Amino acid sequence: MSVDSWETLSKKVYWDRDVPLERWRERISVGHRSYLPDAVSTMTPAEFVRFYGLSKFKRDWPALRAKLSNKAVKYAPVFDLAWSQAVGGSWNLRPTEDFFSMPERRRDFLTQVACAPGMSIYEVAKSLGLQYRRAHDHAASLLRDGKIRAVETIERGHRKMKLFPTYAPREAPLEERTTSPVDSSRKVSPDLIVAA
Fold it and tell me: Which of 7, 22, 32, 169 makes a 20 to 30 Å CA pair with 159?
C-alpha cells in the first residue's frame, strides 16, 4: 500500500486549504478542534503515523483520542488498533490517558496481559521476572481500575486467576453511580410491579 505525498494527502483531508506539514503536526499535537477530527476521519492510520511520526503517535494517541469529538470518535478504533500494535505488539491494549503515567512495571504487566490473554498472575510474574507479591499488587490495581479482568479457574486442583485485557471503560461501582442503571424510558405496567 502506497502512502501519498503530504501535498496530495492534505488536499484529500482539507480540500482546498494549503496546510504545511509542520503546522499540521503542531495543531494535531494539541488536539486542534478541526484539524484532529478531519485527520482521523479521513486518513488511514498508516498515513497519520507516517506524517505525524511513530514515536509521537505512540506517546500522544491516548490523549489525542480523548480530545476527539463525538462525531469523530467513531473513526478512532482503527487508530486504537494501530497504537496497540505499535506500543504493545498486540491488538488488545486500550489507549488510556494515564497509560504513560502508570509505573513502568505496571505498564509492562498490562502490556503482557494484552499480548498473552489468559495468563495467570504467576505466569505474568514469571514472564516479567517479577516477584509474585509485586505482580499480585499490579494485578489488583489494574483490576480495580478496570484495565484488566480476571476469570477464576481451577487447574489440577489449584485456583488460578486468568487475566484478560478489557476494552470497555470501567463502569462505576453502584455506590458511585449518580443515576440508576435501569432504562427509565421503558414503560412498566403496574401489574408487573405488583407481580415482582
Answer: 169
